[in-house]
Amino acid sequence: xxxxxxxxNELKWxxxxxxxxxxxxxxxxxxxxxxxxxxxxxxxxxxxxxxxxTVLHCILLLTTCAELDLIxxxxxxxSICAVVVIAxxxxxxxxxxxSKLRWMTYVTSVIVTALLVFVDLSLxxxxxxxxxxxxxxxxxxxxxxxIYIFFPIPxxxxxxxxxxxxxxxxxxxxxxxQNYDNxxxxxxxxxxxxxxxxxxxxxxxxxxxxxxxxxxxIVVRASFLDRHQYVMEANALRSTRARERVFLHSILPxxxxxxxxxxxxxxxxxxxxxxxxxxxxxxxxxxxxQMHPDVSILYADIVNYTHLTTTLSVKELxxxxxxxxxxxxxxxSRYAVQRIKFLGDCYYCVAGLIKPDPAHAICCVKxxxxxxxIIREVRDEVQIGxxxxxxxxxxxxxxxxxxxxxxxxxxxxxxxxxxxxxxGTGMPGQVxxxxxxxxxxxxxxxxxPGTEAARKDAYFQKFNIFTxxxxxxxxNKNIELDLQESFESFSAKERxxxxxxxxxxxxxKKMPLGPKGFNEPLTRLFNFFNLTKQKxxxxxxxxxxxxxxxxxxxxxxxxxxxxxPDYMLKYSVLQAWCSAMTxxxxxxxxxxxxxxxxxxxDAFLILAFSLLLILTxxxxxxxxxxxxxxxxxSELSCALFRIADNLQRSLIKRILIYIFIIxxxxxxxxxILNDCDMDEFQKEHIDSILYQYDGENTMCFAPWALTxxxxxxxxxxxxxxxxxxxxxxxxxxxxxxxYLSIMLYQFEYLVHISLTTNxxxxxxxxxxxxxxxTFLAVYCKERQAEFNNKMNYKWRVELLKKQExxxxxxxxxxxxxxxxxPAHVVNVYLTYLAKDELYYEVYDCVAVMFASLKNFELTxxxxxxxxxxxxxxxxxxxxxxxxxxxxxxxIVGSTYMAACGLDVRLSSLVSEKCHTTxxxxxxxxxxxxxxxxxxxxxxxxxxxxxxxxxxxALDLMRTLWVCNNDYKNVPIDRDVFTADMSIGIxxxxxxxxxxxxxxxxxxxWGHAVNVASRMDSTGVAGKIQVTEETANxxxxxxxxxxxxxxxxxxxxxxxxxxxVEVDNNYEFMYARDISSEGSQTDVI
Length: 1084
Fold this sequence. Notes:
Elements: H1 8-11, H2 15-24, H3 28-64, H4 72-94, H5 98-130, H6 140-149, H7 157-181, H8 191-249, H9 254-273, E1 288-303, H10 305-311, H11 314-334, E2 337-343, E3 346-351, H12 360-382, E4 387-401, E5 410-412, H13 414-424, E6 431-434, H14 435-441, E7 448-449, H15 452-456, H16 458-462, E8 467-470, H17 476-496, H18 504-509, H19 516-525, H20 529-532, H21 555-562, H22 569-589, H23 598-626, H24 635-649, H25 651-674, H26 678-690, H27 703-719, H28 725-746, H29 748-752, H30 763-818, H31 823-831, E9 839-853, H32 860-876, E10 886-892, E11 895-900, H33 919-928, H34 941-966, E12 981-994, E13 1002-1005, H35 1007-1017, E14 1024-1027, H36 1028-1035, E15 1041-1049, E16 1053-1060, H37 1077-1081
Parallel strand pairs: 4-6, 12-14
Antiparallel strand pairs: 1-3, 1-4, 2-3, 4-5, 6-8, 7-8, 9-11, 9-12, 10-11, 12-13, 14-16, 15-16
Helix pairs in contact: 2-8, 3-4, 3-19, 3-30, 4-5, 5-7, 6-7, 6-8, 6-30, 7-8, 8-22, 8-27, 8-30, 9-30, 11-12, 11-17, 12-17, 22-23, 22-25, 22-27, 23-24, 23-25, 27-28, 27-30, 28-30, 32-34, 33-34
GO biological process, one term: cAMP biosynthetic process
Subcellular location: Membrane
Protein name: adenylate cyclase
């Protein structure tokens, strides 16, 4: 059977891999600093536990010992030792320099260890020689556990070396003093066997401690890496959201942008949850328009622009426009004026739009005067004869977005029309203002009566509007200062805008160092509050986790946490195996064959524990051996791999393994206890004392050896990974209570005559003190580890949520950008383009279309109708996404502008993936099916661009007719739905790009754009008007183009124009009897 050994998930919980990963991402130094801070939190817990242990021990000595004279020296030594230990460990907390703290952790740990061992062994030596007391060591297991659990020595091997050295010292003490001079010898048990039992005990303690160190480093490093990733994702998300806001607000103010942004997110989430359901766009369509009652509108138009389009190259023209508009945008930013958009040579903006501003009229006029100065500067620089007309009017307007594609912020209303007419009837180099605006600025500017054209304008006469001219020469002194401040302020703003990202190092320093339920009062107790105080991170889970049992208050989160795979199971099993083998050896050493079948149970347990060890470690061993070369594994290996994976992933199976291990421990202990004949032992021991003979006092078992083993069992039971913390604590507590109850009641005599730790100190109390201190120490340690585990998991859950939010944000950014820029421009604009950098593209041929609704008054009620119409127009764009793509450029009032040929890919003419019912492909297939057209007639892609835009124009006429039918019974203005729409089409060289320094707006410029606009403005309702060149192109596709006549076009003079014929069913009329291309040209 072929099996691919995958160790990816396990590697993430491999100590060497995590060390390498920390170095790869460059956070090894930060990890070391975090490890030192974590060590300080462990030191505080150790100080409290040691104080508690010392106080409890001293109280028991003073209250239970008969001869206090022998105890005072012990109490004094223990008390002085505790004070010194706390003082020495305190030095780690006081040191602020990480470099000093690293070597100080070694020094202080060695000093404290040496002090504890010295006091313990010195007191035993003192009582042995002075008072002839043979005493058991008090601090052997305690010191070894403290070295591994709480001492601040970093890494794994230094604490292991220190603990091994302490173990050797205590083994030597046992061999020299206890073993040789213990009067209660165990009959046939040799001194060698007792030494082996003690040696196994210490080996087991060191294996458990080393395993704990390894697992703690894995947890801490994994947590640290997750935190680093969390910070990176959070920063990326903030950056993504900032980009989203910047791009969205570059065309839409926040009050308009937010509902659209929420709608996009809601639609994305809805589509994810309901894969087979479509969102009803039409019924749920909401018009995003707001009314602004008190604003000022500025319109500016470049004089002589049409002449420039014919004398300058497209690139020169767009570069000039970018230079002008960028400066205009900078000035508008200084005067708090919101640029709306530009229409070729027309630039219009509004003051008081985003935020109410009582000085909106003054700001607009200042901006207008500034723009006049700017265009004069540019005119002198480039030596081109250009000027500018500016019109300003104050009043109310409607502002918002229309349609569903290429969203652009725009304004509507009668006052907008007045501002436009003020510009059109104004004088170059002057600011033309209405009487309403003049009343707001008369104390700031000098003015004279308006132009003759304004006085004769029919609209102004109808509404009795008077106008005024403001000369920049008479008001130039303050404007020059404002202009200079404008650019300086804008430059400073550009330099300072955007807040820098939070440093990752600072964020990593905010990582919690453990549960604060105990640390806060403890730090206050030792006056460490200011040193260990840390700012709670936003993601802190303290309110969500229980104080003692560290359970999530959210049951669902707790369940998810417990069911995650346990890739550290092998370490827990290894520790359990070592304890089990030591316990079995202890049972075999003191076996008296009173329990039948004990050997079979021992053999079964050895086999079961060994099999479990092989199952959990076999995959890792294979990875070590075969990671660098391919290997074909046997069916047995494959089965072992699958079983190990299943054990790691299943919570139920892990709990069963845990329960089996605890039950096995109890079974072995039960054999040891039942193998003891207490009556026989007590009788022989009493007789030996009464008759004063050295009989063969058969001690059933060694109480201290068994107590040490129970401490190991408690430690294993608590630190076993990925088992519910509550279960581990409860079971370990049950082990403590059960063992102490049995030893203090059933085997009280045996415990009582065993070695004690101090003269006249009851052995029962010494055993209890050791069990309780072990439980409390390991519980406090595991509480820290469990908190880190749960924090790590909570961060991981939050990280997944952040990643999902980031994905939604990226997706919404993409959608928004595609509603701002064409798809092929989005990536370019996001990657390297600066904010005020000119981006342009040159196309040899682009077909441009303008479509205007005639006699459409832009009132609030009609704006809702217009939004419906524009949205339906936008829906047509989805049918022009393949082949020759049609791009919506913008909406100007009630005019819809689109272009074909802006797709840089220019893909094949017909895509097999496209739906054949789309009108564009129906028309292309229909024309290609005509025998009069050879395949060569389609080789010119430029011609087909014109044909496609003509089909799109016809689709607009059809859509408007459908809207007319839909609104037949709607009681609103009937003139809106008469389907009177004029359309103009032209083609030629075009330059497309993004100009200006503030709002992102993709536009096109060139002679073809101006001609298409003029074809629309001079057109007839219900007709598509084209130039002679465009008509000849369409005729080659068989369309009938009728000659209209000579038409005057502003800036171009009189031109021959044509109508593209459309029948009553909104279908193109085709030439049926065509004998030659010349005959086509004569069709009238």
